[in-house]
Amino acid sequence: MLSGFKDFILRGNIITMAIGLAVGTAFTAVVTALSTAFIAPLIGVATKSTGDFGEAHFTVEGTDFPYGKFVSAIIAFLITAAVLYFCIVVPMMKLQARLDRGKPVDIKAALRDCPRCYTQIPGVATRCAHCTSEIEADPEALELAGLPQQR
How confident is the model over 92-131, as pLDDT tens digits? Predict the structure, then answer.
């Protein structure tokens, strides 16, 4: 039983995930510090509020609402999301597109709905397999599959 647990823990993807989590936590701390130390005070200067914008609050019937902390958290989230998207997601999508460029295309992968029975059928299909109605093939799917236009 313990050997199975050891194999699970030492598997490569678990260790990679743990490292990614640690780096993500450190990155979030850096972005939060940037937001708190620089961006929130700049917002405070721009809005003519006194001191740190992160400490901004209002009171309603004795209840304190610290909206400055909420705005700082939103700014930190937006910075984190933008950096992750532009530094990780976009390059990975470009790399994946480059790697997929030479692969053969699966002609059944492009699906569309039958105009009569609304079930999903391949884009290159000229007859629905469910209701047997005749339909025209999708020109984009034919081009993607490298098939000639049907008559």
Answer: 889 888 887 777 767 667 788 888 888 888 878 888 888 8
Q: In 3D, which of 35, 38, 70 has the Cα closest to residue 56?
A: 70
- Residues forming beta bridges with residue 60, ordered by sequence position: 63
Entry pTM: 0.53
Q: Which amino acid is at 83?
A: V
Tell me, rounded to whole angstroms, the distance of Cα 74 from its chain centroid: 17
Separation CA 86–CA 114 (nearest Å): 38
User: Is residue 128 a contact partner of residue 120, using CB atoms and an 8 Å limit?
Assistant: no
Distance of alpha carbon 81 from the chain centroid: 9
Q: What DSSP element (H or E) covers 63?
A: strand 63-65
Find all residues with CB under 8 Å of 63, minimum gap 6, and list them. Answer: none
Q: Looking at the DSSP assignment, which residues form a beta bridge with residue 58?
A: 65
3-state secondary structure of 66: coil
